Amino acid sequence: MPAVVASTRRKLAVMKAEFTTMECLGIVRRLRSPWASPLHMVPKPDGGCWPCGDYRHLNGVTTPDRYPVPHMQDFSARLAGKIIFSKVATVSDFPQPRMTKVLQEFLRMVPQ
C-alpha cells in the first residue's frame, strides 16, 4: 500500500505545480462553482504529465452541439496519403481564449 500512496502524493505535487504554472500564465484561475469535474494526470512520453478534466457527467446534462466535431474515422480518412504531420501542445504553444462566466462555472476541475 505505501507505494500507491506515494505515487498519488507525487501526482498531486505535479498537479499542483502544473496548475500553479498555468495560473501564473493566466491560463486558469481559482473560482467557486457548484460544478466540479475530476482531474486526472496522464503520463507524457517524456516523463511529465498532462492535466485532463473528466467531463463525462457534464456531457450527460449538456444539449448536443448542432455542429458536432467530425468522427475520428472521417477525419483520419482525410489523412490517407499525407506524409507530413505535426504534434502540438496547445496549452503552451497557443494563447488560450477567454471563457465566458457561464462556461467557467461548468468547467471547474478538482483533483481526485
UniProtKB/TrEMBL annotation:
<protein>
    <submittedName>
        <fullName>Uncharacterized protein</fullName>
    </submittedName>
</protein>
<dbReference type="InterPro" id="IPR043128">
    <property type="entry name" value="Rev_trsase/Diguanyl_cyclase"/>
</dbReference>
<dbReference type="InterPro" id="IPR043502">
    <property type="entry name" value="DNA/RNA_pol_sf"/>
</dbReference>
<dbReference type="InterPro" id="IPR053134">
    <property type="entry name" value="RNA-dir_DNA_polymerase"/>
</dbReference>
